[in-house]
Amino acid sequence: MTLDAAASSAKRAPELNSEKARRAAKDPKRPGEKCGATPGAYQPVVDRNSCEGKRDCVEVCPYNVFEVRVINEQDFARLPFFGKFKSRAHGKLTAYTPHADLCQACGLCVVACPETAITLVRIQNPR
Question: How buried is 24 (Cβ within 10 angstroms: 0-12 exposed, 13-18 middle, 19+ buried)?
Fold first, then answer.
């Protein structure tokens, strides 16, 4: 691995919160296939109206699927009044899934999210 590739990988790979991940793994309501799905067979979907950008998904995802950043203007415009108010109260932060194709449906993000803003959706014809 080149130095540039290592630096890029380090930027993308956040610290996994192993305590939080273990707690989520023990949750009996954990959906998905317990990390046994083919990458890309499932996609995590974030409800922007509920997400408060608390980063729990980022901290438990072993596949670096998530990032938390400021909500883009188009997504913000689609929020209802209360959703916009809530988004502003939380610094307009929300989770995005730029690496959803790496998801292996472990379900940790779903049970770790304090707002229950994440669902796993099975992709009918994964690549």
Answer: buried
Nearest CA to 48 out of 29, 20, 72 is that of: 72
SS3 content of the chain, % helix, strand, coil (to 5): 35, 15, 50
Q: List, in order of start, the domains of the chain with CATH numbers.
A: 3-122 (3.30.70.20)
Question: pLDDT digits over 6-42, tens only?
Answer: 334 445 556 889 999 999 999 999 998 888 899 999 9
> What secondary structure letter does DSSP report for 9?
H
Do the Cβ atoms of 102 and 65 come closer than 8 Å? yes
Give φ, ψ of 70 to 5 degrees: -65, 135
Model confidence, pTM: 0.84
> Are the beta carbons of 100 and 43 closer than 8 angstroms?
yes
